[in-house]
Amino acid sequence: MKLSDQEFRDLRLLIQRLCGIWLGDDKKYLIQSRLEPVLHRKKLHSYAELATKAADAQGALLQTDIVEAITTNETSFNRDGHPFEEFRKAILPLLIQTRAERQRTASLPFGKIRIWSAAASTGQEAYSLAIAILEFIKTQPRSGSDRFLVGPENFQILGTDISAEALRVAKAGQYNARDLDRGLDAESKRLYFVESNGRFEAVPPLKNMVEFQRLNLAQPMTDMSCFDVILCRNLLIYFDESTRRCVLEQLCARLSPGGILMLGAAESATALPKGVEQVQMGKTIVYRKSHVLC
Ligand SMILES: C[S@@+](CC[C@H](N)C(=O)[O-])C[C@H]1O[C@@H](n2cnc3c(N)ncnc32)[C@H](O)[C@@H]1O
Description:
Layout: H1 5-19, H2 28-41, H3 47-55, H4 60-70, H5 82-106, E1 113-117, H6 124-139, E2 155-161, H7 164-172, E3 174-175, H8 177-181, H9 186-192, E4 193-196, E5 199-202, H10 204-207, E6 210-214, E7 227-232, H11 241-253, E8 255-263, E9 276-281, E10 284-289
Helix pairs in contact: 1-3, 2-4, 3-4, 5-6
The chain binds S-adenosylmethionine.
S-adenosylmethionine (SAM) binds near residues 20, 75, 166 and 218.
């Protein structure tokens, strides 16, 4: 079906309002190819009718259809490799050391180390973090050390996404062989997934650490508390500069003192909020909040 320039402009504004994604002038084909199936399913006669019906008070279901169609859920386990290696080798020991020191000096409980995968898609990022944590725990000395020893019960991973469809897959934690091949080695597949009828399900120790819920990052994140590590990877590239800045500000406000923000390989935080600095960790750039209170 033909998409006029005016319909394109109306729909891209609506899309930006719904989920923050900004489609440049060269993305007309994307609206057409992603939204045409919605038109057919909903028996609508034009893109103008879709835009009008979605924008009115009864348009909530249509809005969900548009967001589901427009969002790109591309992801994989251990995407880009080195950020997850750095998370296991450098970030986790740092967080644990800081917590243990706080416990010793200020008599505060160790509590849970909280990690947020803020654009979790179908869950591979959150499960990759859980695998890194379990692998890290295995490397701890069993005894004869004054280091604080942590177990899976000391960690909590929250995955959020705007797409209910992606979250359904994430919560089920079931993938096909091809999904596992994208980022997991043979040992991780064997240890952390159980096969049943050609599907591979994350084992309980992974699932017990991870929780998923729906959240639109382009809206005020008023219900979110503080996290020690926040990953917001491969989402900001879809936003315009002002939405990017606003989301970054909100994420940084939810970092605990000393907390770490990790972005995607193609993303950088140009305008960093006060008290957050860029730090190079191995091949990975992260953003670290100073030790002032959240
Ligand atoms: C390309 S995936 C990235 C997944 C994962 N972080 C990674 O790097 O592999 C981007 C995800 O952002 C989600 N998304 C898009 N707009 C969003 C919004 N406004 N709030 C929350 N999630 C959003 C999409 O549904 C999609 O699952």
